[in-house]
Specification:
Blueprint: H1 2-29, H2 36-50, H3 55-65, H4 70-92, H5 99-119, H6 127-152, H7 164-182, H8 186-198, H9 202-227, H10 232-267, H11 272-279, H12 284-305
Helix pairs in contact: 1-10, 2-4, 2-10, 3-4, 4-9, 4-10, 5-7, 5-9, 6-8, 6-11, 6-12, 7-8, 8-9, 10-12
Length: 307
């Protein structure tokens, strides 16, 4: 046991060393883009702790700060998530991810991604408003998910191939379609369905949502490498950050959620519903990030329609 832990620790140190060296090397050639890496680390860590795709941060960053077009931003967000969410899914995998839900959800979601990429393509002019409205919907989904997670914390139910699995597959299919258009969506809808219908544990729902999003992001990345349009000089900087941030995401969620819950429930005057949300172990970080999602969506809609 000690030898295994020692080996894992040394492998982790080696990975950090290699990725840091790679980042320093490419920073010498593209110094302006070097800021993306620490941002990517933070985005991946939060995304993998909550199952909320990192596209919530990457899309506005690439669109408004770096001046990329909506289509380029979506392609780059999906490509970045392919690495970050996979790293996080591997970190969650041993104890939390439901294998049967991942198999069905990942397969249906992948079909949705392919349809949204090649068959039913969202026009470039509709990407920003769609992303903004979807952000508000995801905010409401997160609140429902955390509220349902109160009872699911004590549940021991596992995903079963029963009639409800048909609805789960349909949810994953639609989630994959939405993810192809906006680089977000399927992780939260998967987690909500598992909590609402199957009443699995909160952490299992989140981890499975992360894994399904990872599958869909990898499929989208493969599709867009064939279509072209990925801005590789940005992807070189996001990948080192999300690989490390994704691996840290699960630990971040476990460590910070109880602390945030105590801070919010003890110092903020909230109504009964909101107090219930932030008082749940494992929900503090998710609740905080839901606020970021809401603000993100509102600002994008204001920029699109008013500014």
């Amino acid at each position: 046991m000690c030898n295994a832990l020692f080996l894992r620790w040394n492998l982790a140190r080696f990975a950090v060393f290699v990725l840091t060296g790679f980042w320093l090397l490419i920073s010498a050639y593209f110094p302006v883009n070097a800021l993306i890496t620490p941002i990517a680390f933070v985005a991946a860590a939060v995304a993998n702790a909550t199952a909320v795709g990192g596209g919530f941060l990457f899309f506005p960053l690439f669109t408004y700060y770096f001046g990329l077009g909506p289509e380029q931003s979506i392609k780059l967000s999906l490509s970045t998530q392919a690495f970050g969410m996979t790293s996080g899914a591997l970190s969650w995998s041993r104890s939390y991810i439901d294998g049967r839900a991942l198999l069905l959800g990942g397969g249906a979601g992948a079909i949705g991604v392919i349809c949204g990429t090649f068959i039913w393509v969202l026009p470039a002019g509709q990407i920003k408003p769609f992303f903004g409205w979807l952000s508000i919907v995801i905010f409401l989904v997160i609140l429902a998910e955390i509220k349902l997670g109160r009872d699911a914390q004590r549940a021991k139910v596992q995903f079963q191939p029963n009639p409800a699995a048909a609805g789960f597959a349909l949810m994953a299919l639609l989630g994959g379609l939405v993810t192809a258009w906006a680089a977000i969506g399927i992780g939260e809808f998967i987690a909500l369905y598992l909590l609402l219908v199957y009443r699995v544990r909160f952490t299992v729902a989140v981890a499975t949502g992360v894994a399904v999003l990872a599958v869909c992001s990898v499929v989208a990345f493969v599709c867009h490498t064939q279509l072209g349009g990925i801005v590789w000089q940005f992807l070189l900087f996001t990948v080192p950050g999300v690989l490390l941030g994704g691996a840290a995401g699960a630990k971040l969620g476990k460590a910070l959620s109880p602390w945030l819950a105590r801070k919010f429930s003890g110092r903020v005057a909230l109504g009964g519903f909101w107090a219930d949300l932030v008082s749940e172990q494992g929900a503090g970080l998710k609740w905080l990030f839901s606020m970021v999602v809401l603000v993100d969506g509102v600002l994008i809609l204001l920029h699109h329609y008013c500014w």
